[in-house]
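User: Sequence recovery, please. Input:
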């Protein structure tokens, strides 16, 4: 049976939540493999709206859901999210949710450090201030506290001492009060009995699941262009967001990630600072932001909006080994008389078809556009190709040509069932 890896192919906010929720019907297990609660997924099911930041989207449909070792976990936020979903009628139990016992924790001191550093920075990255970056730093620095440590007081005490030895001078330098190790230990011990029932060797579970022939859906957070290696560094997140991370962040291995589905918005957005060659600061940009409701699920920040950038998505297709894309928010373009697609860039006298790594080169880029005629009819709620205006079909087909990947699904509204299926990613 085929597995599927879902990743954002732009700067995040492409509508992954709805597509993962839709694909969960065909999956047996849903796995989060990177990031933290700095990403938000909105699921609209009938008149019910679910907003998830850490929990895999599969929990809403009662599918076995796994938070993998590649995720950094704020345990207090996780418990709050579980409680919130419970209030919406979705009961999260250890039979439904598995938390990798080797996942690293986000602690209050990580949040303090994240917010203090961003406040002091001249060129701000645009972090959510939730402690994600500092938690990954401690993971790489081999001083993190992991989920399994919550069951071992002796190990926990020693790890807290090591952690505070690193954080103490950082906090002093930023004018933060000294962290209280005893208070942190008490907080962790009080929280541990609520978290530990979910803790298991996730890699072992997934190995058994795959060998039994069940289907696994890997759910990425953020987008490939925010990858710490391959994104618009330093305006990126603190983890690898590309499809290859699904293997490392779950423990399943590279053969298990299967069909790679890239989620692509019919235009382009990004949150926070960093390069954005096709950004629009005119009435069209305002239209995209207003009609598309482009505000962050986690922060509420307005997203920057611009024309579709085929050069960026083409780069993402290569970096992720994308098999096919799910194109979302086509309906936001309804009524625009003329549409533009960026096919590449000019950098002085040179024309290039990719985003260079250097900040100076990125800032100098001028997008090269191709114009297409828009459509006046509505695409919202379309469920077959026949329901789409001819010019909308032409727009979709031109995107396929420019990015070098076919459309597997087309989403025409936030509603789960407003989806045109071209190819089932789970098809063997």
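Assistant: Recovered sequence (428 residues):
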């Amino acid at each position: 049976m085929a597995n599927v890896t879902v990743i954002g192919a732009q700067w995040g906010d492409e509508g992954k939540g709805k597509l993962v929720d839709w694909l969960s019907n065909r999956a047996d297990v849903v796995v989060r493999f990177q990031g933290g609660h700095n990403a938000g997924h909105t699921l609209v099911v009938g008149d019910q709206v679910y907003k998830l930041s850490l929990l895999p989207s599969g929990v809403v449909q009662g599918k076995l859901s796994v938070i993998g070792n590649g995720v950094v976990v704020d345990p207090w936020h996780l418990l709050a999210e579980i409680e919130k979903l419970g209030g919406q009628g979705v009961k999260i139990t250890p039979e439904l949710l598995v938390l990798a016992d080797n996942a690293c924790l986000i602690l209050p001191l990580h949040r303090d450090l994240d917010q203090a550093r961003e406040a002091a920075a001249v060129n701000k990255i645009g972090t959510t201030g939730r402690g994600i970056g500092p938690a990954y730093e401690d993971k790489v620095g081999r001083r993190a506290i992991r989920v399994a440590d919550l069951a071992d007081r002796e190990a926990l005490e020693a790890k807290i001492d090591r952690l505070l030895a690193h954080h103490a001078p950082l906090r002093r330098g930023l004018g933060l009060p000294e962290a209280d190790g005893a208070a942190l230990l008490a907080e962790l011990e009080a929280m541990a009995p609520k978290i530990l029932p979910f803790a298991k060797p996730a890699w072992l579970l997934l190995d058994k699941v795959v060998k039994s022939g069940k289907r696994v859906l890997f759910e990425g957070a953020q987008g490939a262009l925010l990858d710490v290696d391959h994104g618009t560094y330093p305006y990126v997140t603190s983890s690898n967001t590309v499809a290859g991370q699904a293997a490392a962040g779950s423990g399943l291995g590279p053969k298990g990630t299967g069909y790679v589905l890239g989620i692509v918005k019919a235009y382009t957005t990004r949150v926070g600072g960093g390069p954005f060659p096709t950004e629009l600061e005119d009435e069209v940009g305002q239209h995209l932001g207003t009609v598309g409701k482009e505000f962050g699920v986690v922060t509420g920040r307005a997203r920057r909006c611009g024309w579709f950038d085929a050069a960026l998505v083409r780069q993402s297709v290569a970096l992720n080994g994308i098999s096919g894309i799910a194109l979302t928010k086509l309906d936001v373009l309804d009524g625009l008389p003329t549409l533009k697609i960026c096919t590449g860039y000019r950098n002085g006298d040179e024309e290039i078809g990719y985003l260079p790594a250097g900040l100076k080169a990125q800032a100098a880029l001028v997008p090269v556009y191709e114009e297409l005629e828009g459509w006046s009819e509505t695409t919202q709620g379309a469920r077959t190709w026949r329901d789409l205006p001819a010019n909308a079909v032409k727009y979709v087909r031109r995107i396929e040509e420019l990015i070098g990947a076919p459309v597997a699904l087309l989403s025409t509204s936030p509603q789960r069932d407003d989806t045109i299926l071209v190819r089932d990613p789970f098809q063997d």
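DSSP finds twelve helices and 20 strands in the chain.
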